[in-house]
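Quick check before the chapter quiz. The format below is the same one you will see on the exam, so make sure you can read both the input and the output lines.
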Amino acid sequence: MKIAVMSCIHSNIDALDAVLLDIETQKAEKIFCLGDLVGYGPYPNEVVEKIRALDIPTCAGCWDEDIVEGLNACDCSYPSLLAEKRGLVAHEWTNKEIKPENRQFLAQLPYSLKEGNLGFVHGSPHSNHEYLLPEIDAFVALERVITSGADVLFCGHTHVPYVRNFDGSQLQVKINQDKSSTANTFTAQFKQIINAGSVGEPRHGRPNATYVIYDIDTQEVTLREVNYDYQKTCTAIVEKGLPAIFAWRLARGIEFAERADDPTHVCTR
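Here is the expected output.
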């Protein structure tokens, strides 16, 4: 059985439609979405309505939470202070555009999803704002998979697709108590992190939409890239009054902001 996993659509209906057509060619039997339906792009209502109409199992992304609960992210969870300022503009615009029924749909999205030994989150099991970057410390990454209760953890948020395997990885926990210490070591069975990248705002260096095909029977992972008319979306971004820099970075497939020193840090304000 093949499943398709996508994330970070960010109000880009043209990219979503292109990915859905590509999923049909791959003959996936089920689709999962890792959230961030809205934000940055020009078509928040169209994207939410398409996901609702197709009844795609979806977990809440950080942008979906912010539109429901009010902006609760800062430069701690954005890649930079510059990104936070741009995000605020996009949040205010989206907050005015989103229809009440679509806001209500976002409000009822679960934090995570499970399907057998597969887990689905937006950022990480720890927080929707945590970046599980491909180079993150192996101990932290493995701990995140284990705490999800899954063998294969699908995530998004970074907008960069990747696959990371943990085969026979060892964890050691030392406890210092009084003048003695104890150490417990165990070997984790095969674990995997699969990042679906981004449908609507890729940051892997190209404007192509990305998503994942996963074969449950063979455990084969295919990172898919889909061409679409991104220039049409870029034009709509500018015409609808969103910052032109959003169109610029969409066309180049990059973030155009420095990254946080610690991607695992989550704001507690």
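If your answer matched, good. The first helix runs from residue 13 to 26.
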